[in-house]
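Here is this case:
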Amino acid sequence: MLLYTVVPLEEVLEGFEQEPKPTIQLSLGALTVEAEFIGGFQARVVRVLSTDPRHFLEPSVQPGAIIHGRFF
């Protein structure tokens, strides 16, 4: 694989050897997201699992958004 970038290689590969954090799938109505558990009653959205393009425009479930609630 070739990678053409002006970003230093150390920055591109930062965190490459670390284990990924465990994620969970959450159903939010008709929408399913993959999220990482933060603690308490919060989770951070990692990605949206949908085939509907409108779901990707929802600001409440965009990657990085915090979801509050009881998950387990």
